[in-house]
Amino acid sequence: MRGVMFTKPDQPLVIEDFQMPPCGVCHSDLHVIKGELPFASPCILGHEITGEIVEHGPLTDSRIMQRCPIGSHVVGAFIMPCGNCSFCSKGQDDLCEDFFAYNRAKGTLYDGETRLFLRSNGKPVYMYSMGGLAEYCVIPVHGVTVLPDTLPYTESAILGCAVFTAYGAMVHAAEMRGGDSVAVIGIGGVGSRSSSSIVSLLFLNWPGRLDSKILVACMVTIARAFGASATIAVDISDEKLMKAKDVGATHTVNALKEDAVEKIKEITGGAGVDIAIEALGKPQTFQQCTQSVRDGGKAVMIGLADSRARGEIDINRLVRRQVKVIGSYGARARQDLPKIVKLAETGAFNLSSAVSKIYNFEEADKAYKDLSQGSIIGRAVISIT
User: Fold this and answer.
1) What is the DSSP code string of 264-292?
2) Taxonomically, which superkingdom (predicted)?
3) Which domain holds residue 74?
4) 75 & 147 share domain
5) With contact defined as beta carbons under 8 Å apart, do 236 and 191 qualify?
6) What average pLDDT does range 154-168 have in this prediction?
């Protein structure tokens, strides 16, 4: 079996003899590669997958075997709920205790063990989510749902993170309602193209980065479905903003040419938006997000940052004007992933056009270098064969 392995920050990814379904390329992986998010190493990255079920664990419930029989195609969510902890018991899969205590903290599954080992010496290799850049993945069944034949197999890999993240932000964190106005902020006034690494998580980074095309479509589609009165895209590229308009953004703001906060307030009659979403994970855009919402509005943060980053907020305004600052990491796999697949089936997300480049297995390191340099248009997938 082979896999693409990360060893040390800023070192090339290497292919080790570990056997592969497609796996999306995401900026969250890039944060690990750059050492901005601490994670156990060596590890197998990759957390956006579609695949075929080839084996069930020895204790698998018969009902699960019927729901996901061997041979079925599935899509996986990057948050893999255990189904048993206090949060999962309340339906809050996105806060699963075991996922964060074991997988994100230690790179293992929920028995404290990885399922990946180097064939040459037996040493453990850790797992970022399910370790999607390996030929075979072991994933808790609560983290997958069956993928219908009507959806493209390779391109559907991005449903489990890109769309999953956007859905969680809009439905659970923002609790969007009909008539709400929405702004999505990813690149601030500084306009550093090289800094826009985590725009993969949402809306703005569209021709020059990896993940945003599907997320633009996702956020605008969800906003439209919930009856948004206005959807405002903020970016530093006119070309990107035109793309955002193409998928339904009602307004665009070029943050290089005008003050994003002031323009958002102008568009909304001076009040600010009901919901602002920060997708970049930078202190400046964090502040812009909180300043862009109306009194009583919601500032939703989904952009992962360097672990040393800190955001500032006007405390008095937060208290007096009841501004709500909400973090959102993803959706809830058991209840949301089937709904996301259904949305994709209706044509809400054009998956085939969203994935602009497919790399082969041996090009995995190049894929992440291209991602870091901003040279991927749309979103990329690594085909593991």
Assistant:
1) HHHHTTTS-EEEEEE-S--HHHHHHHHHH
2) Eukaryota
3) 4-163+331-382
4) yes
5) yes
6) 89
